[in-house]
Amino acid sequence: MSTRHASFAEFYPYYLTQHANMLCRRAHFIGSSSALGALAQYVVSMNAWWIVAALVSGYGGAWVGHFFYEKNRPASFSRPLYSFMGDWVMYWQMLTGKLSW
Length: 101
Description:
Transmembrane segments: 48-69
Number of helices: 4
Radius of gyration: 14 Å
Number of strands: 0
Helix content: over 70%
Distance between the termini: 24 Å
Largest sheet: none
Strand content: under 5%
Structural class: mainly alpha
Shape: globular
Pfam family, one: Mpo1-like
Protein name: DUF962 domain-containing protein
Keywords: Membrane, Transmembrane, Transmembrane helix
Organism: Massilia rubra
């Protein structure tokens, strides 16, 4: 990604172009759902390994989607904060039916 985006509002449409493949979006959704489950387990158990599990499953799902299905480089490598925000906006849009998955 060579273009710098001045705001998240400018970045998000680009982010969606990097997630055009439905299987990539599904891998993101599964990874994010798994990360939320691991965080919930952390709250219940207070075992810090669940935080590690949340990070591995969240980023793992996204990276599998990019490397195997989308065949592009994850935006988290160049814009980690906007990418993290974009993942959760995309997750919510898929969960509410505003974006197909």
